[in-house]
Automatic annotation (TrEMBL):
InterPro entries: LSM_dom_sf (IPR010920), MS_channel_1st (IPR049142), MS_channel_C (IPR049278), MscS-like_channel (IPR052702), MscS_beta-dom_sf (IPR023408), MscS_channel_2nd (IPR006685), MscS_channel_C_sf (IPR011066), MscS_channel_TM-2 (IPR011014)
Similarity comment: family membership: Belongs to the MscS (TC 1.A.23) family.
Location, primary (coarse class): membrane
Region called Disordered, residue ranges: 427-450
Organism listed in the record: Undibacter mobilis
Protein name: Mechanosensitive ion channel protein MscS
Compositional bias ranges of the Basic and acidic residues kind: 427-439
A cellular component annotation (GO) from this entry: plasma membrane
Residue stretches making up the Mechanosensitive ion channel transmembrane helices 2/3 domain: 214-255
Length: 450
């Protein structure tokens, strides 16, 4: 209650001083200085931003310098306002009492705090965290500038609730939230930096790179949370009261999330699936992209990216086309007529497969005679490729087209479909016999005896 009265007293004193200043000539002078400084700063800042091409000027600058330069250019109008207002205040301090330039001094301090906070928070790329940190930092600076920080802090700390042996106040919640956001941002920034460094190491396999990056991210986030809880005065031993509830929550509500997370760690540890592998799981076929904490992305040939839960790779049957070798064997089937030489057909098929660019020469393509069908000879040809991610159907199509051209060139005939051939043969049987030639008729008998 005393804190509330203190805040009210401070506000009353501030309002009293403001009312007293409203009746003075110097208040109008200060408003005039601020308006002129604001107009001049905005006009000069807009002119400078139009004339400065930052993209062209800083083309070779590092990314960090570019971010700071862009933030500085955005604040150039405010910086000019600060310079003009500061010069005007110094002139007023040399001519009259400091109280007659108090409003200008407060405006200069608030604008300076805004510029400093804008430059620092420009390094935060997450827009939500950027806004929260900016608002919280400027609010703290504004309260400190006007002399209300201590009173507001005491008032926020007065509203609190008890959970077991833990006292949670409004001030603790605000401080913890802001510090946690900043700490998590720093942890993510460090983990991204470490992730880029780890991926640049060529001696590590992709699965080991992802595993190390995940462990570093988890450790940094855990360290950030523990550090924030300790810095705001929370005794970690007091959180033991909630351990039972957290365990129940993990057992029921977060069961799938924990299962997917553990499955992702297992996949990375045993290297059964790693980024870049070509796999087929369920109805999905494609290349493994990002292996996240909850899911793994699979890029398909049609441009789609499927996010498959990590648990599915543990519980379902997965075909890894590039697990131990990048060689993949494919096959095509074809038939020839019985009046075609089967050995010539086999040689033509191998030659056709070798003419396709994506078919490797070793192991050599092989063509096997598999059966003597009712109307044709049946074959199956095997060939190998090294890039299944580039497509399976398209390389089969190329081999079949090459097979069509080669068989036609070698004089090997591909039979027509069965039903059409039967109908054609039946039609040939139903045709009438051709008329006999006149020369084949019997010679007439002689009218003369003997």
């Amino acid at each position: 209650m005393d804190n509330v009265q203190g805040v009210v007293a401070n506000l009353s004193g501030t309002l009293h001083n403001l009312v007293a200043e409203l009746s003075s000539f110097w208040l109008l002078v200060q408003f005039g200085i601020l308006l002129v400084a604001g107009f001049a700063g905005a006009l000069a800042g807009a002119t400078i931003r139009r004339r400065v091409d930052l993209d062209k000027l800083g083309a070779s600058w590092p990314p960090l310098i570019k971010l700071l330069a862009k933030a500085l250019l955005d604040c150039i109008g405010t910086i000019l306002f600060i310079a003009i207002a500061f010069i005007a205040r110094e002139a007023m301090l040399s001519m009259t009492w400091p109280s007659r330039s108090y409003l200008v001094g407060v405006a200069v301090s608030l604008a300076t705090a805004w510029v400093v906070i804008a430059l620092v928070t420009s390094l935060i790329r997450n827009q939500f965290i950027h806004r929260v940190v900016s608002i919280a930092a400027w609010t703290f600076a504004a309260l400190d500038i006007v002399g209300l920080r201590s009173a507001v802090r005491a008032e926020l700390d007065a509203y609190a609730v008890m959970f077991g042996g833990l006292r949670i106040s409004a001030l603790l919640v605000i401080k913890g939230t802001v510090l946690l956001l900043i700490a998590l941002w720093i942890a993510n920034a460090l983990s991204d930096f470490m992730d880029r460094r780890i991926k640049s190491e060529k001696d590590l396999t992709p699965s080991v790179q992802v595993l190390i990056s995940k462990m570093i991210r988890i450790l940094l986030i855990a360290f950030a949370i523990i550090t924030v809880l300790s810095s705001v005065g929370i005794d970690l031993s007091a959180l033991a009261f909630f351990s039972g509830a957290i365990g129940v929550g993990l057992g029921f509500g977060l069961q799938k999330i924990v299962s997917n997370f553990v499955s992702g760690i297992i996949l990375l540890a045993d290297k059964s699936i790693k980024p870049g592998d070509v796999i087929s799981v369920g109805e999905h076929f494609g290349r493994v992209g990002i292996m996240g904490a909850r899911y793994t992305s699979v890029d398909t040939r049609d441009g789609r990216e499927y996010l498959i839960p990590n648990e599915d790779f543990i519980t379902q049957r997965v075909a890894n086309w590039s697990y131990s070798s990048d060689l993949v064997r494919l096959s095509v089937k074809f038939n020839t007529t019985y009046d075609s030489d089967p050995r010539k057909a086999q040689a033509a098929a191998v030659e056709a497969a070798q003419r396709v660019d994506r078919v490797v020469q070793k192991p050599t393509p092989q063509c096997m005679l598999t059966a003597f069908g009712s109307t044709s000879i049946e074959y199956e040809m095997w060939f190998w490729i090294r890039d299944p991610a580039a497509g399976i159907i398209n390389v089969r199509s190329d081999v079949l087209l090459a097979l069509w051209d080669t068989l036609a060139h070698q004089g090997v005939t591909i039979p027509k479909p069965g039903p059409a051939r039967v109908i054609y043969e039946l039609a040939r049987e139903d045709e009438p016999d051709p008329p006999k030639d006149q020369d084949d008729t019997a010679a007439p008998k002689s009218p003369f005896p003997g």
